[in-house]
Amino acid sequence: MIKGQSITLQPATQDNKRTIFEWLIQWQTLAPNYRLPSWKEFCDDYKDFFFDGSQPMIGRCYFIITHNIPVGHISYHRSHPHYQHVELDIWMNSEENCGKGYGSDALITLCNHLFDNFDIKEFIIRPSSQNNRAIHAYEKAGFQQIKCSLEMQISKYSAPDSPDCIVMAKHLGIRK
Q1: DSSP 30-74
Q2: 51 within a domain of the structure (yes/no)
Q3: Is 35 exposed, middle or buried (0-12, 13-18, 19+ CB in 10 A)?
Q4: Are strands 167-171 and 8-11 parallel, antiparallel or unpaired?
Q5: Is residue 85 classed exposed, middle or buried when 0-12, 13-18 and 19+ CB atoms within 10 A define those classes?
Q6: Which domain holds residue 82?
Q7: Per-residue pLDDT tens for 35-92?
Q8: Going by C-beta distance under 8 Å and a sequence separation of 6 or more, which residues neighbour residue 57?
Q9: HSE (side-chain half, CA atoms, 13 Å) at 45
Q10: How many structural domains compose the chain?
Q11: For the stretch 128-163, what's the b/e string if a residue is b when 16 or more beta carbons lie within 10 angstroms of its beta carbon?
């Protein structure tokens, strides 16, 4: 368990995979141009190590817990073990859990954990440009939008989930 200000990050298990997928696909109306995956595509992207903890240098999924209740999901993925950046992904399990600061707290908590334990200094997240509420939450967690063309995104990170994705980054330095 990783403790934040108002949340705790609890490692997800293989038994949680379907639940996390169902939480994701409910958000289609929020960003209609954002291409959500099929169950097969989700399973292809979220390999076993995300749920069994076998490759923590590459990625892991967590439940966002508050008051002993899961309210969302957050994960990180490093596409190559020598990269100094990771891509984060986050979504809440329902509309009622949005706007309460859980997402921002989860992002701050996970970034600090990855910096402290794996010396990861750069974090990116790529929301749909239409998802203003998410963008605001990411800014609250210290992310800033960076200029990055679609070609640059594909070259530096990977293909985004939709052509209207923006790149937001957060950098952590040496702590005193």
Answers
A1: T-TTS-PPPHHHHHHHS-THHHH-S-TTTEEEEEEEETTEEEEEE
A2: yes
A3: middle
A4: unpaired
A5: middle
A6: 2-171
A7: 778 999 999 999 999 999 999 989 999 999 999 999 999 999 987 666 678 999 999 9
A8: 78, 81, 118
A9: 20
A10: 1
A11: bbbbeebbebbeebbbeeeebeeeebeeebeebbbe
Instruction: Please name the residue that has the structure tokens 């950046």.
Output: 85
Residue 176 lies in a domain: no
> Are the beta carbons of 110 and 88 closer than 8 angstroms?
yes
**Domain CATH number, residue 22:** 3.40.630.30
Q: If DSSP codes are grouped into helix, strand and coil, which group holds residue 134?
A: helix
pTM comes to 0.90
- Cα 163 to Cα 24: distance, rounded to the nearest angstrom: 19
For residue 126, which of 83, 169, 172 has the smallest C-alpha distance? 169
> Tokens 């959500």 label which residue?
36
Apex CA 162: angle with CA 139 and CA 133, to 5°?
30
